[in-house]
Amino acid sequence: MLEALPSADLESISTRDPIPLQNDAVTDGALKKIIEWCEHHWDDPPLDPDFDDEKERRNEELSHWDKQFIDIPDQGDLFDIIAAANYMDIKGLVEVGAKHICAKIKGKTCTEVREMLKIHNDFTPEEEAAIHKENEWIYAKD
């Protein structure tokens, strides 16, 4: 996780030095969860940016611990954690959050996804019909 700080002189940093964060970027609850995740994963190897097989990494199962950690009942809290992890450039936690959300969305209809994510449908019936026709292959049943 420290790979994001290549120019930092880590020896000169005190454990009491504050980490400056924008107040609206990270909530207290999200920060506590991020610290918990980082403490659990402190010795993980950094994600390799040159890793050629992205598909392989995307298809890896989450660990039991990560599944329990990220299964947060309040969706707002979940998105706060993912947004804060993204802001703080904690790639591993962002990936865990993304995999969790993908698993929740998988197999759902557009309407179900909108309801789950609280997205207002601002398409007119005509626009929806045009989109449906344009992407008919998605809706085709075997």
TrEMBL record:
It holds the Pfam family Skp1. It comes from the Eukaryota. The keyword Disulfide bond does not apply. Keywords: Ubl conjugation pathway. InterPro entries: SKP1, SKP1-like, SKP1-like_dim_sf, SKP1/BTB/POZ_sf, Skp1_comp_dimer. Pathway: Protein modification; protein ubiquitination. Residues 91-138 form the SKP1 component dimerisation domain. One of its GO terms (biological process) is ubiquitin-dependent protein catabolic process. Belongs to the SKP1 family. This is SKP1 component dimerisation domain-containing protein. It comes from Medioppia subpectinata.
